[in-house]
# Entry
Amino acid sequence: MVYVAMFDEVDEGTAIYKVAENDSQTPTTGRFVTLDEDGEILPSDGYLRLTGEATKMLRHQIGLTSTIPLDPQETGSEDNQRPQADAGSDQTVAGGAAVALNGGNSLDPDGSIVSYLWEQIDGTSAALSNFRSPNAAFVAPAGGISGDSLTFRITVADDGGLTDSDTCLVAVTPDPVSDSDGDGVPDEQDEFPYDADEYLDTDGDGQGNNADTDDDNDGMPDDWELAYGLNPLEDDAAGDPDGEDISNINEYNSGTAPNHFEGNLKPDTPALLAPENGATVSLTPQLATGDFSDPNVNDDHSRTQWLVMRAFDGVCVFDVTSNFSLTALALPRHILEEDTAYIWQARFIDNHNTASEWSEAREFISGPADRDTDRDGVADVQEVADTLDLDADGTADIDQTDIKCVSMPGGEDEDQICISIKDAQNVESIVSLAVQDPADPELNSAADGKPTYFEFGLLDFKLLVSNPGAETTVTIYLSRPAYVDGNIFKYDPVNEIWSDYSDYTEFSDSRREINLTLRDGGFGDADGIENGIIVDPLAFGSEIDPSGGGSGSSAIEKLADGILPNDLSCFIATAAAGLNDRRSGSRWHTARRSELLLAIVFIMLGFVGKAVVAGGVRNRNL
# Structure
C-alpha cells in the first residue's frame, strides 16, 4: 500500500481530497485558496491522478522520469472539452448609468456550463449584482474630469470540471462640465456664471471680487490690505498685528501702518547662504540664511517666514512661518518632487511683528528620490508583500491605485500601514508614502508634546486634493491593533512640536482601522498653504505604558481585586485577531482555532478561580 499526504494531513496520510478549482466552487462566505490562485488552471483531481502515476513508478509498472508524467490540465477523459468563456463586448457608458455585463454567449462544446463568476479586476470599485449568473450588473461610478476604465472577468466551469475565463472593458466617459461664460470656472462653482470677468463674491454684496475694491467689506481697501500683509478676503478691521492697541481700521483712517510701530524700522533683508544658486539638493535640503540684523538695535529676531515655489509654474509648495528665530530649516519630507527646479526666499520678523523685505530669490534643483524601482511613491526597502490585503477587499493592496502601504522593519516581524482614499471625498491621488523610525535622533530632539510611547513609526504621506483648501477624510489600515490608550499625534517638523490629533481621528472597535480628517493648508497639512497638496507627518503614540509596566500588581492580583487586567485583555484581543486573520478553510486551522479558544477559556477560569479564592480569604480576614 502507498501512503500519501498533501498539504495538511488527511486521514493520517492515507487520502487526498479533490480541491476547488476556482472561486465558483467555494462557499459564498469566507476566503479560500483555490487551485487557480497562481494563475494556473488545474482540474480538481489533478493531484489525485499525479499521485496515481507516482504509485505506478514505485510499483515498477512504468519507468521513472524527471518530468511530470501527465498533463495536469487533462481530465482523464479524452471526450471532455474545455468550455469557452465570453464576457461580451467592451462598452462605453456615462457615470451613473446602469451597466449590464453579458456572459450569455459562453458555451461548452460537449456538455453544459454549471457555474458563472463575474469579478472586477481593475478600475474604480463598482458593486456587482448577480455576479454568479451569466448576466451581472452594476451602476457606473462618476467619470470625473478625465473619465475612468473598469475591467471585468467572467470565469465559467463545465460539468466535467474544466474552466475558462474572458474579460471585457467598460469605459466611463468624463462628467460633463457646464461653463456658460467660458471663464474656465464651472457654473456650479461660479457665482457669476454669465459674467466672464467674475466668479467670486466674498462679502456677498452682489459685486464680484474683481470689480469690488473691498472684497471683505471691512472698510479697508484691498490694495491697502495687500500692501501691509493683511488678508483682503477676511474681515480683519479689529485686528492689531503690531500690538500698538490701535485697530487696523483706525490705522487705515489715520494713515499709519498696521504692521509695525510708527518709527520702528524693518529688519534688514536676510542674506541667503545655502543652498547656492542652481545647486542640486536632496529632497529634504537644509535652507540657511545669514544672521538677523535690525536698524533698531534693541529689536529681536522673533520669527522667520520661509517660501518655496515650483520654478516652472510658480505654484507655492511651502509657506511656513516659524514660531521662533530660525536661520536654518530642513524642508520636511514630501514637500519637494524629484528632479524639479524650485525658487526659495525668506524674510525676518522682529519682536514688533514687523517683517523685512523678502530676500533675493534663489533656485535649486531637487535630486532623485530614494530607490523606488516601480516609481509608485514607496521606497523599495519599505514595499509590502504582493499578497498583503489590509483592507480585506479580496484584492492585493499593492495592485490597487487608491491605497498605498509601507512596511516598518522590526526584527523577524514587520508592521504594515496602509493609507486608503477609496471612500474619500475631494482626493485625486496618493503621491507618496514613507515611514520613519521614531528612534531617529532628528525626531528625538523634538520634545514639546512628544508622546512617551511610540508604535509603528512616524508616517509621512502626500495627497493631491481636488481643490485648494479642500477637506477630506482618509482611512488608515494597520497590520495589528493600535494601543488601547493611544492616539494619533501630529508632528510639526518646522517648530519641532508634537500635538494630540484626537479631534480629527476616529478609531474602529478593532483599532486596526482609523478615519483621519485633514484640510489642505489647515489642520493636518505641514506645507502651510492652500495649494491642492496635503503633506502629513503623524505617529501613533500613548502617554500610558501599553505593557502595563510599573503597576505593581500581577494580572491575577488585578483580577482578584475585581479588575480585568489590560495584559489579559490584550492577550485575548491579540489571539482573537490572529484567529480572524486566518483565511485558510483547512481542518488543521479549524482544529487549532478550537484549541486556542479552549486555552483562552481555561486561562479565564483560572483567573476567576483565583479571584474567588482571594475574595474568600479577604472575607475570612474581615
Notes: Residues 549-593, 610-622 have pLDDT under 50 and may be disordered.
